[in-house]
Amino acid sequence: MGTATQIDATVPVPGVRGVSLVALAKDPFGYCMKAARQGDGLVRLGAGPVRAYLVSHPDYVRHILVGNAANYVKGSIMDGIRLALGNGLFTSDGDFWRRQRRLMQPAFHTRRIQRMAETVGEAVDASMASWAPAVANGAPIDILRESVQINITIILKTLFGTDIDEERSTRLHDLTDQVFAGMTRRVWTFFVPSWLPTPGAAAYGRAIEALDQEIYALISARRAALADGDAGEDLLSALIQAEDAETGERMSDRQLRDEVFTIFLAGYESTATGVAWAWHLLSQHPEAATRLGEEVDRVLGGRRPGYDDLAELTYTRRVVSETFRLYPAFPMYFRGSVEDDVVGPYAIPGGANIIISPYATHHDPRHWDDPEAFDPDRFTPERYDSRAREAYYPFGKGQRMCIGEPMSLTIAQLLIATIAQAYEVRTVPGAQITGRYAMTYQPKNGLPVILTPRG
């Protein structure tokens, strides 16, 4: 951490020019991306007495997330998110976070992810069967909505060991959409005086309460099943039975709720959004879609992909990586500085709000050649060098890197390979596809596609 002398010796962080705070209120994500184009990857967001900084230079991101991570905590900017996620891995700090990470790590072991592949295949098969009438009639389906439904099925089966009907799946999807919308609004209230009422607060609270009821019911049912001798192969069972090696303690229902809430919301939404964007990009780049189809034909020979096939599906993985470069799972996330610090040549005061943006880094021509182009071959061993690795962090960096990254990437790769084996996918001609920030970055009005059977 920087001393007072070091702080005095640094240059001030440049402020935003030509971007009004009215734009922040109307479009926070657009405001931040315009701001990120200024300076050299660290810019001060003007908001009266509020001290907020947007960081996108890979060196500065590494300093905050790795080099001096202890000085950058999940500060007050996360308060609106904590209303929903509680004190889970995504929002906690310090010793409590380390304890929770220890307890949860075994639940994300590679062996568990390997077993999940069968669940993924069954969920995709069921969805593809339901698409048959639309495929036969050349009618569009919304690949974002379908990806969400598939991922909800996968997450619930993997997380809770339970199947759900379409009605309940739809209810969970609607509730989580409401919770994400509430988080998106509340995260920007750090710019607003605390005495001002914020729109949608009551609806946000009701959505959290309704989703709480669903989660607590699933926790109660799983505890009862374990007491009756159920083997408990799901993630929730692993979390319920996990003991801290140092204290012997297990998680309370409230702690389980916070972690499950986080896994459920972050898990299905981020993966489903990535899969949808991948199909939109492949639709725009038929040569890439052709290469993808040729690879799945060669590797799979018509059978359903399994976990062991992923190592051979190298182009499929590059498609996933490039999609998350252009559309990172969470395009912005947040920290708060504890003490004064020096980041590069710049002084960062203690008590500042920090916004880190993978989206801005991934689209910056100072760090990527032709950054707006869809080019999966950026991730070949020859091209994905140390410079690119530093500038690529869709799931974070350092010890706070998302614990669910391997699971998300596995699901995305399996889904894309399975669908590519069966269909050619093209975005509906004339469809206006624009993004919107809702914690994740997703197609604003869905993503309608036409599926044509291959072969």
TrEMBL record:
Domain of life: Bacteria
Ion transport found in the keyword field: no
Cited Pfam families: p450
Xref: Gene3D superfamilies: Cytochrome P450
Residue ranges that the Swiss-Prot or TrEMBL entry lists as coiled coil: none
UniProt cross-references to PROSITE patterns, sorted A to Z: CYTOCHROME_P450
Record keywords, A-Z: Heme, Iron, Metal-binding, Monooxygenase, Oxidoreductase
PANTHER family: BIFUNCTIONAL ALBAFLAVENONE MONOOXYGENASE_TERPENE SYNTHASE, CYTOCHROME P450 FAMILY 4
Similarity annotation: Belongs to the cytochrome P450 family.
Protein's name according to its UniProt entry: Cytochrome P450
Source lineage: Bacteria, Bacillati, Actinomycetota, Actinomycetes, Streptosporangiales
